[in-house]
């Protein structure tokens, strides 16, 4: 019995350590490490990646302080995670940036997922020291019609994110990968 208890305690400790290494300590959602472990090296046809960034986040930190920024990060992360559900391959990938991988999604479905997140965040009511902080996000979406490297799919989503930011923020931009795209490698 003592050996069984020892094994059980050790297994639980290992599970807690794994959860700690895969979870963002501030927001409580999965982290970049967890996501990278779940992404395939080659993105199959009809898969999508969304690069998501909180708009003007630095201004929140500069105007209200880092405690307010942390509160915004938690509210935004939890709001998006709740909208997506438990099975989503969704994580905080750095700073105020998030990623979502959709293993099977059309352009329309990927764009709809991004719009869902955008409107969810826009509707959040975050209060810090009696002040309501309005928050929006921009998202870049990339969908591949054929098998491509995951790094290319993510890079294209990043390009789309920069286009969304450059287009005025609080928007979704979709840039797909075409079959005939020069330099595209499987």
What does this structure look like?
The chain is of the alpha+beta class. It contains 6 helices and 9 strands, in the order ααββααββαββββαβ. It has helices spanning 2-22, 32-38, 57-64, 66-84, 107-122, 150-166, and strands at 42-43, 47-54, 89-94, 97-102, 126-128, 131-133, 137-144, 148-149, 172-174. A hairpin with a 2-residue loop joins strand 3 and strand 4 (97-102). Helix 3 (57-64) runs antiparallel to helix 4 (66-84). The longest helix is centred in the N-terminal third of the chain and has 21 residues, at 2-22. The radius of gyration is 19 Å and the shape is flat.
List the helices and strands and how they pair.
Blueprint: H1 2-22, H2 32-38, E1 42-43, E2 47-54, H3 57-64, H4 66-84, E3 89-94, E4 97-102, H5 107-122, E5 126-128, E6 131-133, E7 137-144, E8 148-149, H6 150-166, E9 172-174
Which properties best describe this structure?
186 residues; 6 helices; 5-stranded mixed beta sheet; alpha+beta; disordered C terminus; two-stranded antiparallel ribbon; 9 strands; 47% helix
Q: What ranges have pLDDT less than 50 throughout 5 or more consecutive residues?
A: 179-186
Order of SSEs, N→C? HHEEHHEEHEEEEHE
Report how far apart the termini are. 54 Å
Spatial shape? flat
Number of strands: 9
Number of helical segments with 4 or more residues: 6
Largest sheet: 5 strands, mixed
Mean pLDDT: 90
Amount of beta strand: 15-25%
Classify the helix fraction into a percent range: 40-55%
> Whole-number radius of gyration?
19 Å
The secondary structure category is: alpha+beta
- Read across the widest sheet, the strand sequence of neighbours is 3-4-2-7-9
